Amino acid sequence: MAMWGYGYNMMGWGWLVGAAFVVLIVVAVIVVVRLVPGRAHHAEAAPPSPVGTRTPRQVLDERYARGDIATEEYLERVKHLGSA
Fold this sequence. Notes:
Helices cover 55% and strands 0% of the residues. It is mostly helical. The termini are far apart.
């Protein structure tokens, strides 16, 4: 029995409606995934301190603790900070 254009064909526009429906579903999934709370986007690092809250000595101590600078350089800079 013919459906007189109201079936899957819809007079040639059925593919457009189907494509729009698929795009709508994909966009909805993306929006839901982005709005889900508690997702970790990347490894959590320590939150950055506000500018000016750490002293130069604290920064130097942190760099030494991370191993960014050698003991000799650390001691030299501590000495320099002490005289400043």
